[in-house]
Amino acid sequence: MKNRLMGISKVCLAALVVVATGCYSVTSRPDGAFKVATPPTFEQRQDFYLWGLVGESHIDTKQVCAKSQTVQMQSQMTFVDGLLGLVTLGIYSPQTAKVWCK
């Protein structure tokens, strides 16, 4: 019975880790084109706290794409971002911002 409970506990812990480190992204394309497949021109981890409820991020795309047009912007929680949030129990919950220029 004890071995069975230990096995169930391990499965539950593994499921919690997978769910808690789930990835997501929000993509914006000003011209409505298809998703850009090239590497981003700019990428930066943004700091948020308390499960993303505290913190603000601003990226000046005119400065990033100084002599060209912004093609795509993306805010993403990567696996590493989710893992950092899990390890800190949500106190630190970073997100990654990406910008693509023409």
Give structural notes.
The chain is an alpha+beta fold and about 100 residues long. The protein has three helices and four strands. The protein has one domain (about 1-100). Helix content is about 30%, strand content about 25%. The protein has a four-stranded antiparallel beta sheet. The longest helix has 19 residues, at about 1-20. The model has no long low-confidence stretch (mean pLDDT about 80).
**End-to-end CA span:** 62 Å
Oligomeric form of this entry? single chain
Spans where pLDDT lies below 50 across 5 or more residues:
none
Overall mean pLDDT: 81
Whole-number total of structural domains: 1
In total, the number of strands is 4
What spatial order of strands do you see in the largest sheet? Answer: 1-3-4-2
Please estimate the helix content.
25-40%
Q: How can the largest sheet be summarized?
A: 4 strands, antiparallel
The radius of gyration is: 18 Å
